[in-house]
Write a structure and sequence with these properties.
Elements: H1 3-22, H2 27-38, E1 43-44, H3 45-52, H4 56-69, E2 72-75, E3 84-87, H5 91-123, H6 130-163
Antiparallel strand pairs: 1-3, 2-3
Length: 164
């Protein structure tokens, strides 16, 4: 690869890593995907090790994560016994799927937290004073707002899926 092309690719990979980090994603995984995305042919683990200057174990571990996301797939290359990978180039689908899974995970975490909080409140209800009951009533009113927001987020996610 021409030196200037490699410099441009390095700058692109660095920018992709920073962008991914700003969204809470692993910057190395983003760089790994970007190398495969930019490549015009499938790349082996050895190719990726050389390009990213990372250990084969690190590359392999993160390739598996990208496979779970559906972002890359293992492909057969005639005449070679090595594992080769290529990127799914449908960026829109990948971004939507990753955002969707992240939002669904957070909605699930909020729902679990709410259920646990309600269970703790309800388990102590028989021992509460009148003042405590007023506090619990206020809690329930505030929790309802969080539940409404969670339901709205779920509906918005459903609409977004239909759009994409």
């Amino acid at each position: 690869m021409h030196n200037k092309l490699e410099m441009a690719q390095d700058k692109f990979l660095g920018s992709i890593g920073k962008l991914a980090g700003s969204f809470g994603l692993n910057d190395f995984i983003a760089k790994l995907y970007a190398v495969l995305y930019l490549s015009d042919k499938p790349l082996s683990l050895d190719d990726l090790v050389e390009r990213l200057k990372a250990s084969k174990g690190n590359i392999s571990l993160n390739i598996r994560e990208l496979e779970r996301w559906g972002a890359v797939k293992n492909v057969w290359v005639k005449g070679s016994r090595k594992d080769f990978y290529e990127a799914d180039t449908d960026i829109k689908k990948l971004v939507v799927n990753k955002l969707k899974s992240g939002i669904q995970k957070r909605i699930g975490q909020v729902s679990d937290m709410m259920a646990e909080f309600k269970a703790l409140i309800n388990s102590a209800e028989s021992e509460m004073t009148e003042e405590d009951r007023k506090i619990v009533k206020a809690y329930h009113e505030k929790l309802k707002k969080i539940e409404d927001m969670t339901a709205l987020a779920s509906k918005a996610l459903g609409l977004a899926e239909k759009l994409f």
